[in-house]
Amino acid sequence: MATGKRIVLASRPQGAPTLDNFRVETFDLPEIKEGEVGLRVIYLSLDPYMRGRMSDAKSYAAPVPVDGTMEGETIGEVTHSRHSDFKPGDMVRGRTGWCTDAVIKGDAIRHFDTHGAPLTSALGALGMPGFTAYAGMKVIGQPQEGNTVVVAAASGPVGSMVGQLARLAGARAVGIAGGADKCAYVRDELGFDAVVDHRSGTFADDLRLACPDGIDVYFENVGGHVWDAVLPLLNPYARVPVCGLVATYNGENAAGHDRLAGTMSAILRRSLRVRGFIQSEFVGEHYADFQTKIGPLVASGKIRYREDIVDGLDNAPEAFIGMLKGRNFGKLLVRVKEL
Amino acid sequence: MATGKRIVLASRPQGAPTLDNFRVETFDLPEIKEGEVGLRVIYLSLDPYMRGRMSDAKSYAAPVPVDGTMEGETIGEVTHSRHSDFKPGDMVRGRTGWCTDAVIKGDAIRHFDTHGAPLTSALGALGMPGFTAYAGMKVIGQPQEGNTVVVAAASGPVGSMVGQLARLAGARAVGIAGGADKCAYVRDELGFDAVVDHRSGTFADDLRLACPDGIDVYFENVGGHVWDAVLPLLNPYARVPVCGLVATYNGENAAGHDRLAGTMSAILRRSLRVRGFIQSEFVGEHYADFQTKIGPLVASGKIRYREDIVDGLDNAPEAFIGMLKGRNFGKLLVRVKEL
Questions:
Q1: Contact at 8 Å (CB) between A291 and A134?
Q2: Chain A residues with CB inside 8 Å of B268's CB?
Q3: DSSP alpha helices (H): ranges in chain A?
Q4: Residues 6+ apart with CB under 8 A from A184
Q5: What value of ipTM does the predicted structure carry?
Q6: Distance in angstroms (rounded) separating the CA atoms of residues A201 and A198
């Protein structure tokens, strides 16, 4: 019987996850039943939302059970197929989790089209992160010509797309990133109009100077002290799509005083629109447009992105832990097997 | 020369306003110029937003200057007119401020139609508070049949309209009010499906029991500990129109810990829509419909309301201070002069 390797949740993290919270296992691949396919996993996507799945706090999605395989989206090659839509050699995208091999229902995986862009873009700019940016901006952010759009983690897969979409809409894109290298990349390679380093001691002042006309759209994916700096700059009727709060996922975000009243007061006094969302809500209405409009722009290089690729499934936990601390530079992927 | 009486802001309050923050003055009425009218003020509306105008914190509206007349909307009778739209004896609505007599531009006042309901309804159910409820529910709350809608200050002019509009939309209305008398009124006279006393030691539990299917729309007009009780009950995709935060206006709302992360996390995890608004934003698009649809319902008694009328302009400061503490029961008005 063939075996695969997988990474399971060994225990729930208290605060920041540690390597102890993960365990590598070998498992027997089950028989492939009618309607199922066998896959060898090529790339695993690592994303901040996975921190939420490690916790059993009430959320929109059930947590990964202890001893369960860590959830995640992958690109895999079909090795065996008992589903009429797939044949060996097909490249597919699906939520197999953190594993080297999988047997999965054909109905749970999809072919994908990168319009000629590299395969990995299907997990980044042309995958869930890119669509998160697209849907959040399209439905909630609604940047207008001349608006100022601010996004943090601007070198990452969501932030980089947000800023580039803002510019395509005629808005001014201001990125927030951590460290000189990421800031230079955001400004010089992604073409943001301005970039601010959130690690600087003058961060809040720097952001204010970078936004002389205030902020019309703040795409929230970090929370924490970035929110504190953004809040006073939000213009009346500003839109705040909330897609992530990575600074708070490890429970390290509380201030010594209550910041809630200040935020609610700003929401009231400036008629702000703060809207949490998960991209899946918008797939039905907007995914096809996203593919059609954004695919060619990514393939042609008009929309740029950067990847941070780690080799080997065993290294996924360490890479994931580092990502929550901002150590990755670009979309974090694990190359599980060679193509 | 004729004189009038007015109430000015003597000093900015620190925390809860006190009588010292107000001063009664006699003033000379100016000559009525071309395009202006002279008014005797019959009713003055007292509303929580006025607390914001007493402060010089950044807001959507400029603060009342120290020594300036307190802002407010009134119903007045035209005594002199040099504007072709008005003649002596006309009843008009306008923002004359806290005063007994005014000279004002004709373009700044309006005739109004209560569809046969009492005159005072033009400052309550058929005025700014009623429209605040209508617009907030129409544009942001969007109650659907079977939804649970929660509103605090449910015996007040905004809250009472919110709950009755919810029921007209086929939703379940749950009111929050302070004290047994107000709760009985909300349940028995306004016809809410349930009511909870926020002064009870078991308030949070009571609210949970009153909302067995969670909360789909929370119309926020108080903030403070009511928000803490509401937050865990909000369903995915719940809408939160934020029209007031009266519990926080006097700066008494901070908890001993930081509640912001909990609120932002709920917004993210449950795809909440939190949207601050001022009714004026929606006047152009929705006011005519409000008048047409709601006027007859109020006039016929299908939509009910209650007023708390105080006699004499001199008593306005004390009544206003009491309102911020929930001492009024129904829409608070000052009868400035006899009709």
A1: no
A2: 242-245, 276
A3: 49-53, 128-135, 157-168, 180-184, 203-210, 224-230, 260-269, 283-299, 316-323
A4: none
A5: 0.91
A6: 8
Burial (CB count within 10 angstroms: exposed 0-12, middle 13-18, buried 19+), residue B116: exposed
* Per-chain mean pLDDT for chain A: 95
Interface contact A265, partner B, CB < 8 A: yes
Give the up-direction half-sphere exposure of residue B335: CA atoms within 13 A in the CB hemisphere.
Answer: 9
CA pair distance A44, A67, nearest whole angstrom: 19
Token pair belonging to A287? 């995914």
Contact A60 B255 (CB under 8 A): no
Report all structural domains of chain A as residue ranges with CATH numbers, in order of start: 3-112+306-335 (3.90.180.10), 128-280 (3.40.50.720)
Residue B315 has pLDDT above 90, yes or no: yes
Q: Cα(A97)–Cα(A72) distance, rounded to whole angstroms?
A: 4
Is residue B42 within 8 A of residue B119, CB to CB? The reply is yes
Q: Cα B35 to chain center, whole Å?
A: 30
Q: End-to-end CA distance of chain B: give it in Å, rounded.
A: 23
User: What does the pLDDT average to over A264-279?
Assistant: 95
Confidence class of residue B61 from pLDDT cuts 50, 70 and 90? confident
Q: Is B236 on the interface with A (CB under 8 A)?
A: yes
> In which band, very low, low, confident or very high, does the pLDDT at B253 lie, cut at 50, 70 and 90?
low
Contact call for A257 and B259, based on CB within 8 A: no
